[in-house]
Amino acid sequence: MSFKDKLLALCVVVVWGLNFVVIKIGVEQMPPLLLAALRFVLVACPAIFFIKRPQVPLRWLIAYGMTISFGQFAFLFFAIKLGMPVGLASVMLQAQVFFTILFGVLLLAEKLCWYHILGMLVTVFGMVILATAGLQSDASQVGITPGYVTGGITLTTILCILAAALCWGLGNISNKMIMRDHPTPVMSLVVWSALVPIVPFLACSWLFDGVAVMTASVVNIQLPTVLALFYLAYIATFVGYGIWGYLLSRYETWRVTPLSLLVPVVGMFSGALLLGERLSPQQMLGALVIIIGLLVNVFGGSLQQRLLQRT
Known about the structure:
By secondary structure, the chain is mainly α. It has one domain. The protein is 77% helix and 0% strand. The longest helix has 30 residues.
C-alpha cells in the first residue's frame, strides 16, 4: 500500500472513529430518531439526482436499508442518547463481525473456523465483563436528559448496541447477496438505500417523541446539531465510504478490512479527549477483551497458515 493510500486509510479510520462523538453531540439537542431521519435525508438528497439508481430488486434495497441503515442507527443513536459512552459503543458495535459470520453460516452455508469460535467466545466474555460493570455502576451519577431516562452502561444500553450490531450483520449479508447477484457501485447502493429508512425513522420519532418535540427540535435547531448532521451525512458517509471503496478496489480485502479495528480505538480516545469520558478499570478490561476477540477473528486464519507452513 502506497504512502498516500495509507494516509487515506488513516483518514477513514479517524473519520469513522470520530463519528461516535459527533452522534453524541447531535443527540444532545435533538431526538435520536429524528436526527437519524435528517441524516439520511441529507445522504439521499440531492445525491439521487446525480447518482444512477442501482439495478437491484426493490426487496433487496429495502432489506439493506432497513437493516444496515434503520436498524443499526436506530439502536445506536438511542443507546448513545441513553448515556452509553461513545468509546464503549464503538468497541461493542464491532460485534457485528461475529453476527455477520453467524448469519453467513446459517443463511449462506459458509464455513465456521476454530478462530471464529474462539474470537466469539473471547468477545462474549468481554461483553459479560462490561455488563457486570454496568449493573454495578451507580446510575445516579449520570446526567438526565429531558424525555429520556439515562443510565450509562446498563443492560438496556448494552442490548441496544448488540441489537445495532445484529442489524449491521444482517445488512452485511444483504450487501453480500446484492453484490453477488446484482453487482452495483457501493455509493449508488448507499445513496438510494438511504431513502428506505427516512419514513420509518420519522414515524418512530412521531410515536416516541411526538409532533411538538419534533417541530421544536427542527425550528430551534442549533449550530452544533447542524454541523453534526453534515458530518454524519457527508463526511462519515460520502468521504468515508468513498475512500473505503477506493481502497478495496486497489488492494486485497485482507489488507484493507483489518484497518477497521482501529475505529473503536479512535472512538475510545476521542470520547476521552473530547467528551471527558472516564472508564473504570473493569470497563477498560472488558473493552480490551473484546478487541482481543476481534484480533483473534481477523488474524487467526493468517496465524494458522504460518504455523502450517513452518511444520
